[in-house]
Amino acid sequence: MAANQKFKIGLAQMACAKDPEVNLRRALNFIERAARSGARIVCLPELFASRYFCQREDVRVFDLAEPIPGPTTRALGRAAHRAKAVIVAPIFERRAAGVYHNSAVVIDASGKIAGLYRKMHIPDDPGYYEKFYFTPGDLGFHAFPTRAGRIAPLICWDQWYPEAARLAALDGADAIFYPTAIGWHPSEKERYGARQLDAWRTVQRGHAIANGVYVAAVNRVGLEKADAESAGIEFWGSSFVADPQGAVIAEASSDREEILFAEVDFGRLETVRRHWPFLRDRRIDAYSGIEQRFLEPNPKVKKAQ
Question: According to the model, what pLDDT value does residue 2 have?
Answer without folding.
Answer: 42
